[in-house]
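Minutes, project check-in
Item: structure for the 192-residue chain
Input as provided by the requester:
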Amino acid sequence: MHNIKILYNPFEKQAASKLVGVGIGFLIIGSLSAYFFNGRFDNFLHFDLDKNPAIWKPFLDNLIILGCLFLFLLTAGKIINAKTRAIDILATGLIGNAPFYIMALSNINGMLAKSTDDLIPLLSHPELSVPVQSIIILSVIGIFGILIPIWVILLLYNGFKTAANAKSTKAVVLFIAALVATLITTLFIPTF
């Protein structure tokens, strides 16, 4: 049971400094994966294709997302509990967002790009036959595109709850507000 719990709540048993180190490793691997598989995490909980990404783009994207998560979750945590530690919120952001890096794997060998390109002609020519393989690939990616954000939010909530010692409805509302603020802010930060 403990081995499974680490997948959705590693914050109770692991030191924040250890989680920060592991989280930085995930951030590096996730950013490199996005680069090698021609994609970017251009805003919170969003993976997009980029045919010619510069290696620094996925790193910058992830640092902006992490910075926003940190800022808004720390603010919410301090409102709930003034003793909320910045290192605990940093660990929450790094570990909580890590599962989303799996989405970069959806474009191994250009699989996502090719499947999407296969369906675009159908928009103007519905009489064309539907490429079944592309539909299957996009359906599987779509399922992961729903499950992985749920995992991310669960991790972020468990980390936030532990960091801020949050137990009230107010904590849930502030957590949701912090995620919405992160999403909106990362949508409007210009990407290069």
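Outcome recorded: The longest helix spans residues 132-164.
No further action items on this chain.
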